[in-house]
Write a structure and sequence with these properties.
Elements lengths: L14 E5 H5 L6 E4 L5 E4 L8 H7 E5 H7 L13 E6 L4 E6 L6 H14 L9 E5 L4 E3 L9 E6 L5 E5 L10 E5 H7 L14 E3 L8 E4 L1
Parallel strand pairs: 1-3, 7-10
Antiparallel strand pairs: 1-4, 2-3, 2-5, 5-6, 6-8, 7-11, 9-10, 9-12, 12-13
Length: about 220
């Protein structure tokens, strides 16, 4: 694959930790993690254990370009923010996104949090939990799938946030997923324009390229 056609932002030669079973059978794909350093971990469902011998038996390393050849589905995650995981749904051919929980290294977690807080330029905290309509926490590998965008930003009376996508019909119940604010804003940067909303305010827009309008509060 030429550098012009390389779909990911990481270097093609960067090392990837991958389950050994996936080298034999990529259909065992279960989830990936893009850690805070931008390194990929691709798994058949197993996670690291405290037993290093088990880890060496279960996982190996490949250059990212080889991992992409083996599992081309990860190309759909080109814009995945660091610090996120994505579970693979083979039936729907889609990735289901989540923010990664803290590691077992408390000192490292504190350093990562401090760096994220220092780099945050918007109101609120990058670590704050945001509810998003379910399709906003999914990335399909189908090129014909509709583009994802936020239609409505709701600041609830208690200060919590809800982002609703265009695929959600008006006045109908819908499922939500939780993401960290930084991850939601990285995936949907347009919402940064209304993060100064006060509790009780609702912003809406007619289309993905339309301006936000205050419709409540």
């Amino acid at each position: 694959m030429s550098s012009e056609n390389w779909p990911l932002r990481q270097d093609p030669e960067s090392p990837v930790i991958i389950s050994r079973s996936l080298v034999e059978d990529p259909s065992n794909l279960a989830f990936v993690v893009l850690d805070d350093d931008g390194d990929w971990f691709i798994s058949d469902g197993n996670e690291f254990s405290e037993d290093m011998d088990l880890n060496r038996d279960a996982f190996g390393s490949l250059p990212l370009r080889e991992a992409l050849d083996l599992i081309p589905e990860i190309a759909a995650l080109a814009e995945l923010p660091t610090g996120m995981a994505a579970d693979w749904d083979p039936e729907r051919r889609a990735w289901l996104l989540s923010s990664v929980a803290d590691s077992d290294d408390d000192e490292e977690d504190l350093l990562v949090r401090a760096a994220r807080l220092a780099a945050w330029t918007h109101p609120g905290s990058p670590l704050e939990e945001v509810q998003v309509s379910a399709e906003l926490a999914e990335i399909s590998t189908d090129p014909a799938s509709p583009a994802r965008a936020v239609r409505q930003v709701v600041r609830e009376a208690d200060g919590t946030w809800l982002f609703v996508g265009f695929q959600v019909p008006e006045n109908e119940d819908f499922e939500v997923e939780a993401l960290e604010m930084e991850h939601a804003v990285t995936l949907y940067p347009d919402v940064a324009l209304v993060l100064s909303a006060a509790p009780g305010q609702v912003y809406d827009r007619a289309g993905a390229d339309a301006p936000w309008e205050l419709v409540e509060g």
